[in-house]
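Q: For a teaching session next week I want to show students how multiple molecules come together into a single three-dimensional assembly. I've collected the sequence lines for a complex. Could you give me the predicted structure tokens for the whole thing so I can convert them for display?
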Amino acid sequence: MTNKKTPDDKNKRDFLQVSTYALGAVGAASFVWPLINQMNPAADTLALASTEVDLEQLEEGQAITVTWRGKPVFIRHRTKEEIASAKDQLLDGLRDPQTDDERVQNEKYIVLVGVCTHLGCVPLGQKSGDVKGEYGGWFCPCHGSHYDHSGRIRKGPAPTNLEIPQYSFLSDTLIKIG
Amino acid sequence: MSKPKFKNPVVNWIDYRLPIFTFMNHELNEYPTPKNLNYFWNFGSLAGITLVIMIVTGIVLSMNYTAHIDYAFDSVERIMRDVNHGWLLRYIHMNGASFFFIVVYIHIFRGLYYGSYKAPREILWILGVLILLLMMATAFMGYVLPWGQMSFWGATVITNLFSAIPLVGESIVTWLWGGFSVDNPTLNRFFSLHFVLPFVIVGVVILHLVALHRFGSNNPIGIDVQGKQDTIPFHPYYTIKDLFGLSVFATIFAAAVFFFPNFMGHPDNYIPANPMVTPAHIVPEWYFLPFYAILRAIPDKLGGVLFMFGAIMVLFVLPWLDKSSVRSSQFRPLYKLFFWFLVIDCIALGYLGAMPAEGIYVVLSRLATAYYFFHFLIILPLLPKIESTRPLPISISTPIITASSNASTVMAMREKK
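A: Of course. Below is the structure for the complete assembly, covering every listed component.
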């Protein structure tokens, strides 16, 4: 051990140390990732992420609620009056301005995620006897949010319109949500 | 105390109020460790790390497991197929159990070879045997959770051991089951206990470490540390050595997890539990085989159970059975020989435990069982009377006996100390 430590040795030693720590950090992170990722939705949960609904039996004025990703989805077959009232609404004064056309693919059917945008309750208005609120759409009993025939927020604490899920018409009366 | 010990003022501020950094510095950094430890001293820290791996993977597995007889098997299969990285986590946990026992068995035989159980480390040793018992209970109950055929029948056989107890045996078994057979209540309580016992093990491990740090590690020549010249600080010397050992261990562990994940398991456990059909050949996991062989070797129900538990109980009193004052086998030629006989005997018991209980295997099991107890109860107490031990070195730093010094002067120096 007669050789002196030169600055070169020190640089080599630093490099070895830094690269060892870096490799150790990568190894630790790659072990930690599976521990975290196991809490994300599993393959079978993701496989249930779309739902098909046949609307043939749904008469004008009727509504059905289906489950999609564990949440209720509202589908209402709107009457001509309801469509007209939703279309005629001026955007001025709406909290979350959207035209009815932006919110439907086929104006007969409105498809909404049935979860109030305030704090997550399920609004009333799907059953014939339900309170539908001052605008004839849906009414959330938890904190009094009123939604219109297009599911837009009109009155109450909710900040935004009822969410529209991703969906597509597979035929005239068959839709696939998700 | 007023002089700041650490460069970082925040660390100093905390340490003055909660001396956690002083503690860690004392026990993990400057902790004086014999300088002659060989690689067999890696297995203590390896066992600790394996325990942590088991607890971490176990907690995440429990997030995806359902402790119900109708769902348990399917929920484990869901972990294998659908849960993100679930196959990896389960295979680590499953093989981790086997590797935990490999590491701990090597750790125990290290203690036997180098006399680490002798004064003043008797309580350290006893706590270790207690950890082994807790590990066995935890491993057994964990094996029941996937609710396969081996899970079910293993649970049935092991719980039935308690029925050998006179008078109250049957009531105890009913109490363990929570019914009249191994069923849903049994699975539920086993899950609960399998979750909590590892934390009990952590508690006993902490006591094990407190007892270890009282006198420090034993060492390959088994003589006491006599001063600073015999030790080196734990960090960086043994941290780096332990890390190197860990990377070798992790490589082998990873090879098993990725290439032979079911090598140490039993295929019958991939058949869902069926209370109506017992598998043709039922064996426990490999790490229980020596004890299973002892159980079957005794032709009496209660006797078999007593001898099986006795095989571990005898370890509790080992510090008082081995009366020799010399620790390390390096200086005990006869003990060294018998140590290796014991190793062969335990491996033989393991092999016999896996064989069917018939013909020559029964005879051999009885011989091996008898020798196991003969070793601990007869050989060890008698050995000091007939064994002439080799001269001990003066210290760890001067292990080589010079030509001028002879055994008597060395003994005299030790007497003086």
